[in-house]
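Standup, Tuesday
Yesterday: got the pipeline producing structure tokens again.
Today: sanity-check two examples.
Blockers: none.

Example 1:
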Amino acid sequence: MEIPEQDAAHMARAVELAGRGHGSTTPNPVVGCVVLDAAGQVAGEGHHAYAGGPHAEVVALAQAGERARGGTAYVTLEPCDHTGRTGPCSRALLEAGVARVVIAVPDPNPEAAGGAARLRAHGVSVTEGVLAEAAERVNEEWLTFMRLGRSHVTWKFAATLDGRSAAEDGTSQWITSPEARADVHRMRAASDAIVAGIGTVLADDPRLTARPGGERPARQPVRVVVDPDARTPATARVLDDEAPTLIAVADDVQTDLKADLLRLPRHDAGLDLRALLAELAARRLVSAFLEGGPALAGSFVKEGLVDRVVAYVAPALLGSGKPALGAAGVGTIGELHRFTFDDISAIGPDVRLIARPVRRPAPQETPLAGPQPAREQ
């Protein structure tokens, strides 16, 4: 459909506002809202800032006050029609006397959906699908979480121009610059979980914590170690008290490891990664930041479980050493995993590439049976 220029402009602003909630709204979505008065002038703006706090519509309506009556509200996600920790946004819009509501994306959560229908039933004009692609992109972690019943996965790696993530002797500190590493910490801090394999834990003994600007944020992501045979040393830094940690082990392994264990079925040479992501979602971990070695990354790519790739490429060459990606189920060029670039940015002397799969999720990737993650209000 052809979108009126005014609708596109105001929804673009709502999408921008929604992005401000990244990293603080889990397990809720990021949402932005712009309210116009009856004359078409901006009267209020808002975004959902934290779980349990006021929703974007409520913030924008409070700012608009009486000017909202007869006006238009632009919302990146269908207003909720559910009472939780806060009231339904659909009713807040009705009480404010808004005459028209423009929605980008319908709410996939059956518990919260229905706001558009309620608004229409009470005589409010509702337009849907405006800038849906942009609104989906800004809220992609939560939408994956809700639609597929699993955590959204970002795979991050750092490599040289020839694709090496470590030298022949295993050393890798540091391939990229301090600026790139600081950027990684900002991305870690905005994630709900940091995932690494046992190989990385044994080789590097990483902390797997977020330290943006060198400071410890108020909320640390959950550290997840994929360790089928429970080989994590009791002295490993991932078991310290800096952040909560889950050790994912095979359901048939015997261990006396003193840690929070997540038992999963074996799959190929490792664990069932779909089951892992479903378990993380059940714990309301919306987004997972995958780090660690090439073998684990290859398994995620092979299973079609990488939703976004963030690559930091340094202007350097090694010629030999560890590749960034291991076996990923590609036997011939026709099986290539193709991605499209969304962003290419200079980060210090390095380049950051952000890409997403061209293909859609595999047909077998559907929400698992049983309880699904709920949207908190």
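Example 2:
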Amino acid sequence: MKIAILSRNPKLFSTRRLVEEIQKAGHEAMVVDHSLCDLIIEQEGPSIIYKGQKLEGVDAIIPRIGASVTFYGTAVVRQFELMGAFSVVTSQAIVRSRDKLRSLQILSKNGLGMPKTAFTNFSKGGEKQLIEQVGGAPVIIKLLEGTQGLGVVLAETKKAAQSVVEAFHGLKARIIVQEFIKEAKGADIRAFVVNGKVVGAMKRQGAEGEFRSNLHRGGVATVIKLSRVEKQAALNAAKALGLDVAGVDMLQSARGPLILEVNSSPGLEGIESATGINIAAEIIKFVEEGVRKKSSKREKH
């Protein structure tokens, strides 16, 4: 079968690993830069022109859409879906998980553990209340559009928290304020979910004096065996957002696992290096199963 990886950079570790595993499984791999796709919408039905050629015969896609191109990237994923291709993550689920506020609202509705979070409109003088809503300082203040630990601030005192919130509001930047989970000690867990199973998990410890554990910020990853409760929390979070492939970030707290966010295109490098598990192969197995199910459904109709 023909499997397209939607990625803007064929040299990225995750993209390269997926290409390797697609070829190893005997399929045809192609890397498609979604930002260069033209979407044609007409009565004959939807089509995609890529570098001057009509894209045809694509059985499945693996979206690796960066946060900066979510809108266009998801439009491309949707077009492939309408053309009958199987997508590892649906366009709708990408949109849902990319919107931090919306995804937290969905997780909360589904009764999942999470740090207490507050969001407000740019109300003058509302900073104080916002900080109190989540239990007072220290608090974590996050830009809704930030990724890889960028736009995340730890405010240790009430005064500092108010200043940061005021500064962000002054810039008309949308933020959420979250309670600080002290007992997590600057570490978090990433559970990698594929097709309703946790296929690997790592613990990421922030660099000395750093409360963010992102590997891009100098964090260190080690393999971890999840408890039954942590495993279930990861699966429930991915399911609530409709993601069949996801990286679920959690904190270990005194009241059990707390979901931080659910990533719809999690990187493979950190998790494969830390666990030694061939996660890319698991994703390809899921693609094969998805395409099989899709074509047997077609035959029935």
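Quick observation on example 2: The first strand starts at residue 2 and ends at 6. DSSP finds nine helices and 16 strands in the chain.
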